[in-house]
Structure formats: structure tokens, C-alpha cells
Write a structure and sequence with these properties.
It is found in: Secreted. With 319 residues, the chain is mostly helical. The protein folds into 2 domains: 124 residues, Peroxidase, domain 1 (Orthogonal Bundle), CATH 1.10.520; 130 residues, Peroxidase, domain 2 (Orthogonal Bundle), CATH 1.10.420.10. Helices cover 50% and strands 2% of the residues. It is built from 14 helices and 2 strands. It has a two-stranded antiparallel sheet with strand order 1-2. The longest helix has 24 residues. It starts with a helix and ends in a 21-residue tail after the last helix.
């Protein structure tokens, strides 16, 4: 009996080793010798960017999430198209990406002190954390050591990135494919406590969904005409209560059926995520704790480490 059970146990150990390899290769002190002032430099540059544009934290969160969900956290979303590949910025879910210039500016600042040392992928991870903190959200230790991809994929972006009309079951499947649980899905969705979305992303919800507060729907229609393309790019806040503050109002809005996107309200619509939404609406500290932990896990999805990839000199182009 011992012999017959040793094989699956060995297989399990190999699987666990594979799953946690990426986590082990990223460390908080990765640049302690090669770029000791990195976090101070990034924090200062991010603070300047947020001061210039309060929407920057939300834009950074979107960039980071959309980077990690396609090829892993490798800075591929930052790449412009080249003659050899069509990048991710033209994907349906990546229309109107913002803060690409912010990452480029931070990278150039870092290069002055630490030339050719720090990846664009790591700069994006740090700036995203700093943007959340500057908006009033939680902080967390960012594991570092990612390297930059030398290619990107429009097709993978279109396949992997969830859209604003996604169902709960579709969201669960997409997140599970990246090793993220239902609770982590709900916690990470709380990033929508900051930022804005264009009319084209929520038009169908405010005119056709039934699980929506009618007063909220009517007030939102004022900035989003029923017939496209009229008003397609008109913006409305994802969190109508506190659109630039990182708090748990996103979840209290869902309880009142005031989620702007269909995919947001799916988290509270008589489904398996309802109790998690209720818990975060009741406790901002629980949300902050779980969000920080989920961001660390998100940032550990399939990074390039060691000799894989490269350290880009300019984030938008390969060396």
C-alpha cells in the first residue's frame, strides 16, 4: 500500500513546487544592493503623478491587472506594436489605457540612479501599490525581481481579460485560471472603488438591467445617451459615492444595486459572492487586508525571473 501511495504524493509535491516557484523567486529585498533607493524614487514620482492627475491610481491599477492577466506580470501591456507582433494595447478591454506615460517617466527617473537594473514590470507593481496608498488605501510589501517580456499578444489579451458585461460564472472561471479564488476575485474587484468608466462600457446595464437602482440608472443616463456612438466616451465614476477615495464604498453601492458595470453588480445578485460583498461592506479593514493579500498574489502570476526576459531601457519598446 505504501508503494502505491508514494507516486501520487510525489506528484503532488512536484506540483506544489511548481506552483510556488514564482513566489519564491520574487523577494522584497531584490534591489537592496543594486538599487537601494528604488522604493523612495518610485513613491516620490508616483506622488507627483497623482498630484497632477487624481485619476492616476485607478489607471495604474488597471494597467497592473491587465498586465498580470496576460502572459503574467511581465510588463507586456506597456509594449507598443512592432513589425513582429501586435501588442496588447489594442485589445477590447484595453481601450483608452492611461498612465503609460507615468510608468515611462518613473522608469527614466529610476534609470538616473540605477541604470539598466530595475524592470518596468517591477516599477509598475510598486507604482500601483503607491497609488493605492495615496488614495487612502492599504499598503503591502511588493515582492520584486520580475523581468520584462520581449513580446506581447493582442490575441491573449482579448481572450484573458474580462469585459464589463461578464457574468459571475465567467469571472470566476477567468480568475480561477490564474489561480485566484472567489474571495480574491471579490477583493480585487474592489479596485473599482476608484476610477471612471466610459458610457460604452455600461450603457446596456443602465438601460436594460433590472437589478439596478432606478434613481441611480436615471441619473447616469443623463451622461450616457441610449443610442451609440453618441456619448460613447463620456465618463461616469465606478464608485458614485467616493470616486477618488480608496475605501469600501464600492461594496455598499453594490448592496444598493448601484454598481456601474454589469460585471460589478454580478458580485451581488443572489449568487455565491453575495456574502463576501456584505462582509466587505461591513468592514473596510477586512477589505483592506484581503485586497492587499490578493494584490501580492496577483503580482506573482507567472513572472519572468532569472535570465528570462530582459530589463528594458524604455518601457514601451524592447531593447
Amino acid at each position: 500500500m505504501t508503494g502505491t501511495r508514494s507516486v501520487p504524493l510525489a506528484s503532488l509535491l512536484v506540483l506544489l513546487l511548481y506552483v510556488f516557484t514564482s513566489h519564491a523567486q520574487l523577494t522584497a529585498n531584490f534591489y537592496s544592493s543594486s538599487c537601494p533607493n528604488l522604493e523612495t524614487i518610485v513613491q516620490s514620482a508616483t506622488q507627483t503623478a497623482v498630484g497632477n492627475n487624481p485619476r492616476t491610481p485607478a489607471s495604474l491599477l488597471r494597467l497592473f491587472f491587465h498586465d498580470c492577466f496576460v502572459q503574467g506580470c511581465d510588463g507586456s501591456v506597456l509594449l507598443n506594436d512592432t513589425p513582429t507582433f501586435t501588442g496588447e494595447q489594442g485589445a477590447r478591454a484595453n481601450r483608452k489605457l492611461q498612465a503609460l506615460d507615468v510608468i515611462e517617466k518613473i522608469k527614466s527617473t529610476v534609470e538616473v540612479s540605477c541604470n539598466g537594473v530595475v524592470s518596468c514590470a517591477d516599477i509598475l507593481a510598486l507604482a500601483t501599490r503607491d497609488g493605492v496608498v495615496l488614495s487612502g488605501g492599504p499598503s503591502w510589501t511588493v515582492p520584486l525581481g520580475r523581468r520584462d517580456a520581449t513580446t506581447a499578444s493582442l490575441n491573449e489579451a482579448n481572450i484573458n481579460l474580462p469585459g464589463p458585461s461578464s457574468s459571475l460564472s465567467s469571472l470566476i472561471t477567468r480568475f480561477a485560471s490564474k489561480g485566484l479564488s472567489l474571495q480574491e476575485l471579490v477583493a480585487l474587484s474592489g479596485a473599482h472603488t476608484v476610477g471612471f468608466a466610459p458610457c460604452r462600457a455600461f450603457r446596456n446595464r443602465i438601460y436594460n438591467d433590472v437589478n439596478i437602482d432606478p434613481i441611480f440608472a436615471n441619473s447616469t443616463k443623463a451622461n450616457c445617451p441610449v443610442s451609440p456612438p453618441n456619448g460613447d466616451e463620456n465618463l461616469s465614476p465606478l464608485d458614485v459615492s467616493t470616486p477618488t477615495a480608496f475605501d469600501n464604498a464600492y461594496y455598499t453601492n453594490l448592496l444598493s444595486f448601484r454598481g456601474l458595470l454589469h460585471s460589478d453588480q454580478e458580485l451581488f445578485s443572489n449568487g455565491s459572492a453575495d456574502s463576501i460583498v456584505q462582509s466587505y461592506a461591513a468592514s473596510s479593514s477586512d477589505f483592506f487586508t484581503d485586497f492587499a493579500a490578493a494584490m501580492v498574489k496577483l503580482g506573482s502570476i507567472d513572472p519572468l525571473t532569472g535570465s528570462n526576459g530582459e530589463i528594458r531601457q524604455i518601457c514601451s519598446t524592447v531593447n
